[in-house]
Amino acid sequence: MASAPPSTHSAITLTVNGEKHPLTVDHRTTLLDALRERLDLTGTKKGCDQGQCGACTVLIDGRRAVSCLQLAVAADGREITTVEGLADGDRLHPVQQAFLDLDGYQCGYCTPGQICSAVAVIEEHAAGWPSAATDDVRPEAGPPELTPEEIRERMSGNLCRCAAYVSIVEAVARAAGERTGGAADGAEEAAA
Ligand code: FES
Ligand code: FES
Question: Core-most of 1, 38, 83, 189, by most CB within 10 Å?
Fold first, then answer.
């Protein structure tokens, strides 16, 4: 019979991109370190390691979170999606394709976090969530238009040291337009 982990450790199961990974982790291990150091999922990047840059953004139960501020033990049993889990086989996620087509990056270090964040931004907007840039937050006003200003505000937790922001906004707008089947008007505005 396997011996019980020491009291400073716990046996957990991280479900990442649909795969279950049983692990014994030190209680101080962040989700970011567990992903990178224990599961070899190095797509998720460590930038500041203190919740300020967004490079480590992943989705937990469909919502974005900075994995450097999450303890791995707190992610036990939750559904985690990293940048490695967004594509469908060889077919890139529409957000990934838009970043590629529109040069939404330069060095690429912030890109996995930007992309995970953008995937969630598009879902949050589609669900009608307002942002700090939304003028009219009354329920009867309906969902705000995903303007470049809205995208910039919603993506403001993700810093890009190369300042590829113009293309990032354009890429998010295009992917959002594809999701709704509508025109990517924000993309045109962002490109203007
Ligand atoms: S590494 Fe997590 S926010 Fe910067
Ligand atoms: S592409 Fe270099 S930090 Fe964003």
Answer: 83
